[in-house]
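anyone seen this seq b4? input:
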Amino acid sequence: MSKSLFFAGLLLLFASFLTHPPTLSAETHGPPVQGDWLINHLSAEPATLNPITATDAYASNINEYVYESLLKRDEKTLELVPVLADSWEIADDHLTYTFHLKKNIRWQDGQPFTARDVLFSFERIRDPKVDAAHLRNYYQDIEKLEVLDDFTVRYRYRIPYFRALEFCGGIPIVPAHLFKESDDFNQHPIGRSPLGTGPYKLLRWDTGKEIVLVRNEGYWGEKPWLDRIVFKIITDSTVALQVLKQGGLDFSGLRPIQWVKQTQGKRFEENFEKLKYYLPSYSYIGWNLRKPIFADRRVRQAMTLLVNRETILNRILFGLGTVVTGTFYVNSPEYNREIKPYPYDPSAAVELLKSAGWEDRDGDGILDRDGIPFSFEFLISAGSKFGEQLATIVQENLKQVGIKMEIRKLEWAVFIQKIQEHDFDACTMGWSLGWVSDPFQLWHSSQAEKGSNFVGFVNEEADRLIVAARQEFDAEKRYKLYHRFQEILHEEQPYTFLFTTEALVAVARRFENVTVYPMGLSPREWWVPSALQKYREP
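predicted toks r here
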């Protein structure tokens, strides 16, 4: 589950999504034409653009234009459709998946794309020396990947996996010919110089400023209309809004306060269209269970009881979201609606803390146990206004019952390094989910050492449910397993689950064919009428 460190998960189409998505444009200007640039806002700089080792949404936002896989999920229908594969076959026992590749594909340096690239990428994902633990769990049950010829590959599983087609077909693929046997894959130059088969290729990466993609004129498929996609790196959302208003950005996410109060003027409405739509995601506070202070679930339950989520939702997010109780998307059948959020209840929290041994024994106003004060550090990303506001409110709530919380703000790259190294007490982040759920990556105990189970959650029953669900092809039976799993999460509170919020964005009105699909927006389809084009290729 890849944001916030947003990351990988997954989901079916539900009634809440638009079945007939509207387009923004009030009028059209004839057939699509080529030209113009899209200037996009990027709120943090990705650590790498290597699609196998990258773990955040910032890299994903860029790589989706550069790299492709065998299959993808269609934005409109949510069905799996071919990209680099022509066709595929699935054995009746769900253990063998054969893909036939297209034969006219070339990497952006002109070298042919073949089955060797798929095998090389698979081997790198499976290599324990490669920083791909977030992917490795999805491929761990594959016995082998066979190259039958230059354009045919066959995966063989040892046990069935209900999402096998999605991951076999959606495997991130890098060009094998760029790598030498002696190369350190994690530090390979491809991380700064991506090279894919996609419709755009890297023009330049100016550290701290912008990442520029230019249309791949040798692209094998239908070429996009826009000449360039430019990602301007602006870590301060207030500055980003000013740049947007001044015309320096065409497309940007908005904070709730910006949506409600700072983008209402006539001039803004003339230049930009505002869109809001739900995508599967959630935010959370993560408690590091490896730390003695958070090892007791009574303490974690108390921490949740001390977070006034309804007040935070209304005060910071202007009510543009929903309080959630688990790891599944709130509008999905995987989500257990019988579980109600813990209320804000400081008195109950104090009783739980007392039962866990935390009292103010020395009269200094701070709870203590065995002579150790209840004091911890709360990490937030420097680019997150929400994180900063959340931390300030939580800090004050905890202070009132005798808990000392220090807020530490770190740049994104340092922040995520601390999280991955488990060098934190508590933090706030979010997960961007996909379209079919599998909680293994986030919650199975095997992912606690090197994986996305950053908080170190270990529970035997949860492990059994997660593994059983992976092999259950009956959706209703799988939902029941997930509902019980969510009950365990609710009891254990390794996260204080916060909110699923609406995506809030602004798009310059000169762009045509801006459509909200079930999977969000698809800028690859956008175009600008000749009379409205703002940028020209040099």
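Residues 68-176 form a domain with the Dipeptide-binding Protein; domain 1 fold (CATH 3.90.76.10). The two ends are 39 Å apart (CA to CA). kinda curious what u guys think
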